[in-house]
């Protein structure tokens, strides 16, 4: 897909929101659109998805099937989740048994199974956002456009977004994501486009500079060994702390016998019972 | 695209907002037929005039019920042309249902009488003319309602203004002796024709007029949609 000298404004006499954007996104490629609020990220995404028509310039070679996840899902509709998704599957061109198959598989994967007969206006924001994700994926799109997909999602579904993206990429689809919260660190292979003052610049590939913070829960007895090993592998240890929330989060790997954290002092760097190690790639080449 | 038509009709019926125009239509029809019995062609001609603004309003409601973002999602799924066509078709189907109710209504309340004088039309001919008059109002009303929809005008205030102007204009400009009758759809002329002399050439002329007016107004709607993205 290619955006050729695309100019966009919302009113005839209004200011140009995008000015002469010229960019190409090939099959199997993912690009992250970065920028401050109101800078035109959503506008760029909507032009790519085919929702907005550019005032000047054009979009060529857009894949036939586009999945668009809007920033806010339009929940003000008189349908239940299952009815809405069934309707959208048919609108996307699915027929017969394939409709139910797609709806069932996506409601299951996104944790919407319990909400199938709930009406859209009654959903929480995050659950509605999942319906937004589901409708875009019902039929595997050749171009997936995600506008702030992590907004309002719970931890388990946030992890799922990169999975969906990988699926589209594996089928030679292209993916465009906007993000202003740094969640796209989960997409290390992504090209980075930053939008400012109406124009788009591609940031040079910077895998070395990108820094992610990974929190690791380790049984207290193994903290010292783990810290040493991670250091040896070139990671930077930011801090070691007693985990006050231990025992509750299901996403974390089990960390041995759980003890109340109140009897620990945060200053104890190692040897504490139930501790979190926060690591970062080695700072040497990073900064 | 059939799927989108069905989804939009379902959305329209499920919100319950379909009730308001239908109620307005029934009340005006009730008032109309409450005045006494009339022969079918004459009665249906007037009923079509009354129904025109109701059908346009119904179309506007049907199109406005769908949130803007959902309309864009539909556009992404089926393309711009088919998204617009599906909206017009859904409104057309809803309008035909209302027309069917309007055609049946006078029979339920005993508002229709058979031929009285020897020169009067038979009931089947009267029915056929009445059906024709109503079907002529459908495309024009759908076109006006679409032009007045939020997707076309952008704000609710303008939409109501377009709707009111179109509804009143169709009656005022359609009065005999009007300076610019062609600015409005020929619903008043149709009523005069069904009530009086209905030559084949006149019927054909009115049909062409109504369709041409609808095409121009739909063109305006599509142009507005294109300009607004």
UniProtKB/TrEMBL annotation, chain A:
Organism of this sequence: Micromonospora arborensis
Annotated signal peptide: none
ABC transporter domain residues: 1-223
Bias (Low complexity) ranges: 253-262
Keywords: ATP-binding, Nucleotide-binding, Transport
Statement: the UniProt record of this protein carries the keyword Aminoacyl-tRNA synthetase: no
InterPro entries: AAA+_ATPase, ABC_transporter-like_ATP-bd, ABC_Transporter_VariousFunc, P-loop_NTPase
An example Gene Ontology molecular-function term: ATP hydrolysis activity
The keyword Nucleotidyltransferase belongs to this UniProt entry's keyword annotation: no
SUPFAM superfamilies in the cross-refs: P-loop containing nucleoside triphosphate hydrolases
Region feature (Disordered): 245-287
Name of the protein in its database record: ABC transporter ATP-binding protein
TrEMBL record, chain B:
Key words, A-Z: Membrane, Transmembrane, Transmembrane helix
Keyword Membrane: yes
Name of this protein: ABC transporter permease
Organism per entry: Micromonospora arborensis
Transmembrane segments: 84-109, 129-148, 160-183, 203-223
